[in-house]
Amino acid sequence: MKTFRFLPIVLLILTAKAEWISTQTTANYLDADNWRDSICDDTFSGADSPLSRTVLSLDSDRLVAPTGLRVMHETSAPLVIEAANGPKKFIFRNGGSLLVDIGAASDAVPMRIGVQGNESSRIDFDFENHPAIVSVSAGSGTSGLDTLSCYGSIRGTSFLRTGNGFLKLYGAIETSSGEAEFLGGVTYLYNWGIGGLHGIPDVRNLSLGANAKLSLEPAITPQTITLAGGFLQSTGSVSAENLQLKSGLSGIIARGSSKQLFGTLSRNNNAFLTLGATDSAQLGSSAFIRVDTDLSSNLVGGGATFSSQPDSSRVSIIPWAGVNSFAKAETFYQSTDYLDPALPVTYTADAGFVTIPESSMFTLGLEQATIEDNVLLNSSAVSLEANGMANCLVFKNWGTTVDLAGYTLSIGSGLILHRNTKPTIKNGTILLGSEPLRILGRQTLTCSSKIMSGNTDPDDVIMITSSAGGGGVVLSGDNSGLVGVIQVASGTLAANNENAVPRTVSVELSESARYPMVWGGTTTRARGIGGSGSIQAGDAKNRLLLGEAPSTTATGIFVGANGFIAPGERDSRTGRRSGTLSIGNTFTSLAFLEDSSFEITITDDTTATALTASTASITLGGNLVLRDPTPNRSLGEWIILSAKPNPDKDTITGSFDSIPPGFQISLISTEGYDTANAVLLSRKLKGSLVIIL
C-alpha cells in the first residue's frame, strides 16, 4: 500500500539568478549598472546600509519580478522605490511573494514604494493569475518591526498577509476570488493618497487570524468576516452578512461614528469578543456595532430597561463580550491593553452593543450587592464579612486583593474582568451559576479560593481564561469537586496545586495558549489535554499526571487510565481537530500508560494534526482512539506507521493496545523527514495525518 506523506506547507521564496547583472549578495542596488532591460532581481541586499535614504528610480512601464520581490537587510536601512513618469506596475510573472525584512528597530525606518499623493510616482503590484502574498517581518535578532508603505494597489487571485510588521497601503487590495486573509502583523488601508480604488472593494470573505490587526478607512461590504483571534478596526462603515468568531479572543473596533452592521453572528468554541468605540469606550452612541439576529437570549442578570445608555447597576450583560477604550487609529498597534475588555456590555435592538460604564456599576460592596448587580471593585483590598454576590465582577486598581475570608462569592454571569490590574482572590469559595467562569485580563489573576460548579458533564465548559497581554490565571486552590472543561483562549493557565485542575477536568488550549507553567517539582493534574497550544513546565522537576495516572516521583508527563492527549483544536460544531499540540522541552518523558488514550481525528483533507515533543522520550501504551466525524465512513483503508526518534535519543518503546480493525502498526525509517520522530496515519489518495512525537 502506497503511503502519501503530506507535511505542513512551508512557503518557499525562490531567488532568480538570470536577471541581475551582479550575482553577489552584497551588490549595491543603487548602482544603475546592476539593472538591465527593465527587469529586477527579486533580492535587494544593500551593501551600503545603514543609509538615511535609498532611492531607486524605475522608469519602465512594466517591471518584471520573476519569482517575487525580496528586500532584506541585516541592519536598519530604508529603501524607497519610486516610479519615473508613472504610474508603473510590478508584474510577478510566476507568482511568489513580496517580502520585506530590513531589521528595522521601529516603524520609523520604512520601506516605501511610491510617493504619497503623487500619481506619477505610483507603483502597483500585480500578481496576475497568482495569489498576492505580502510578508512584512521583524528581522531575526531584532525587537523592532519593519514597515512597508505602499502608494499603489496590490492585485491577485487572492490576498494573503503574513509577518509581524506593518503594511500601510494607500491603494486597494483587489482579488478576482474575493478572498483576503490576514495572518499576522498590522495592516492599515487608507482612503487617500492616490487616485482610484481604496481598501478592499470586492472582498467577499475576509478573515483575520491570531495576532493580525486590520485598520480600515474605506467602507467594506463582505459576505463573511471571520475573526480567529484577529482585530478589525474601522473608521468607515462595515456591512457583512455573516460575522464568524472562532475560538480565542477577537475584536471589532468602531472609531468615531463608524457603523458596523452584521446580519448574523456565530461563535465557535466559546469565542470571546472585545468591542471598542471612541476614546471613552461608549458604544451605542455615535459608534454602533449591531447584529440583525436577536441577542436577547445571550443576556445574563440585571433587569434595567433603557434605549441606548444604561442608568442602573442592574443591567443584563453579554458574558462572552466586553468593551475597552483606545487611542488614535495610528496607535492601534502600540499597546495591547485595548485587546482585553475593561467593561461589560449589554445589547439593545436599537443601539446594538452598549457599554456599561463605571458610573452605572455597583460600588458599595459585595455583601450589599445582589446577583443582578455589576460590581466595580475600586479598592485595593476587599475582605468579606458575609457571603457576597455579583452579576459580574470588574477590577479597577492594580494589585487588588479580595479575601473571601471563608465566605462564598456567587458570580451569576461568571464574568471577571481584571483589565491591567493583576488581582488576587483568596480563601473561601467562588460559586458559579449556569454560565462558565470567564476570567479575562492582560495581567495574571491568582486564585487560591475553591471554585464550585453544579456542572456534572465532563464535556461542558466550566471555565474560560484569556489574556491578550501574555498573562493569564494561576490556580492554587483545591478544586477537587469540579467536572468539565477549562478552555485557555490565550495566555497561560498555571496550576500550582495537584488538585487545582483535578483529574475530572480536561484542558483545551487554543493557539498560543500554555499549560501548565509550574516550578520546583510541582505535581499537576488534569483529565486530559487537547488543542493547539503548548504544555510547558517551569523546570525539569515537574510532573503532569493525566487521568488516573498514579502518584510518582518521576518527572515528565504520564497519561493514565481515562486520561488522554488529543492534539489539534476541536471544532465545537464538526468535532474535527486541527493544529499542533506541543510539549515543552523541559519535559523529558511522555508515557502513555495502560487504558490511556491518544485521540486523533481523521479527515479527508490534508490538514494535519500533530503532537510535538522534541526532547521527550516516548513510551506508547493504552489506546489509540481514531475519531472520524464523517458518518458511516469505513476506516479500513488507513494504516498506521510508527517510527523511532533521531539517533541521539532512545527508540520509542511499547505499542498501543487497541488498534481498530483493518489497521496495523509497524516500525519504519524516518528517511525523508526533518522531524525527530513521527507516527504517520495515511489513507489512500485522501491526504494524511502526521503526528510528530
Describe the structure.
The chain has 693 residues and is mostly beta strands. The strands form eight sheets. The protein has a 13-stranded mixed β-sheet with strand order 2-5-8-11-14-17-19-21-23-25-27-28-29, with no helix packed on it.
Major β-sheet, in short? 13 strands, mixed
Instruction: Estimate percent helicity.
Output: under 10%
Widest sheet: strand ordering = 2-5-8-11-14-17-19-21-23-25-27-28-29
Please report which band the strand proportion falls in: under 5%, 5-15%, 15-25%, 25-35%, 35-45% or over 45%: 35-45%
Can you count the beta strands? Answer: 63
Q: Low-confidence parts lasting 5 or more residues at pLDDT below 50? A: 1-27, 35-55, 631-655, 658-693
Through-space gap between termini: 24 Å
Question: Any idea what the shape is?
Answer: globular
Helix tally?
A: 0
Mean pLDDT: 76
Radius of gyration: 27 Å
- Category by helix and strand content: mainly beta
Tell me briefly what this model is.
The protein has 693 residues and is mainly beta. Helices cover 0% and strands 40% of the residues.
Notable characteristics:
single chain, 693 residues, mainly beta, 13-stranded mixed sheet, 13-stranded parallel sheet, 40% strand, disordered C terminus
Task: Show the helix and strand layout.
Elements: E1 43-45, E2 55-58, E3 62-65, E4 69-72, E5 79-83, E6 88-92, E7 98-101, E8 110-113, E9 123-126, E10 132-136, E11 147-150, E12 154-156, E13 159-162, E14 166-169, E15 173-175, E16 179-182, E17 186-189, E18 205-208, E19 213-216, E20 224-227, E21 231-234, E22 238-245, E23 249-254, E24 259-267, E25 272-276, E26 288-291, E27 321-324, E28 343-348, E29 352-355, E30 374-377, E31 381-383, E32 388-395, E33 401-403, E34 408-417, E35 424-426, E36 429-432, E37 437-440, E38 444-447, E39 450-452, E40 461-466, E41 472-475, E42 484-488, E43 492-495, E44 505-509, E45 514-515, E46 523-526, E47 528-531, E48 534-535, E49 543-546, E50 556-559, E51 564-567, E52 569-570, E53 577-583, E54 589-592, E55 597-601, E56 609-612, E57 617-620, E58 623-627, E59 638-643, E60 653-654, E61 667-668, E62 678-683, E63 688-692
Parallel strand pairs: 1-4, 2-5, 3-6, 4-7, 5-8, 6-9, 7-10, 8-11, 9-12, 10-13, 11-14, 12-15, 13-16, 14-17, 16-18, 17-19, 18-20, 19-21, 20-22, 21-23, 22-24, 23-25, 24-26, 25-27, 30-32, 31-33, 32-34, 33-35, 34-36, 34-37, 35-38, 36-39, 37-40, 38-41, 40-42, 41-43, 42-44, 44-47, 45-48, 46-49, ...
Antiparallel strand pairs: 27-28, 28-29, 52-53, 59-62, 62-63
